[in-house]
Design a protein that fits this description.
With 163 residues, the protein is mainly alpha-helical. It has a domain at 27-128: Flagellar protein FliS (Four Helix Bundle (Hemerythrin (Met), subunit A)). It is built from six helices and no strands. Helix 2 runs antiparallel to helix 3 (54-73) and helix 4 (78-105) packs antiparallel against helix 5. The longest helix is centred in the middle third of the chain and has 28 residues, at 78-105. 14% of the residues are buried.
Amino acid sequence: MFGYSPKSAANAYSKMNIETGVLAADPHKLIIMLFDGAIVAIVNAILQIQQGKIEAKGKSIAHAIRIVEHGLRASLNREVGGELAHNLDALYTYMVRHLLISNVRNDINKLNEIKTLLSDLRGAWEKIAPDKSNQDAAEAVVNKPRQPQPDALAPRKSSYISV
């Protein structure tokens, strides 16, 4: 009657959960999420090649390319990042090129290579995460709840003792 199906509800929940995660994530966590998204897209593409789902494979690889190109590569700060940022830029360019080639050739080996590169970078990025205990302590100081101030007009207890 309303077009409800458990699958559409699950998709809507999944989309909402991802959007909520993005809104709540710090910049470091967002990069982790980009790595995860690209890896999942590549894993999906590999399965879709094996299942003969060529159109779906193309969409998955295109999704991985968008994440690498417009997410990971676009987030590089080449001015501040120096040689490391330039090396990552070259690596992301390599990944995009080989994702395109693997799409045309249905090359599972090349997809696995790119997935491994992304997984290795994700692991390295995770290891350099800001110290969570220090971050939590800093946030507690910055976001420390203020002590309520007494209301000057509120009635007060009398200190007089009646006889």
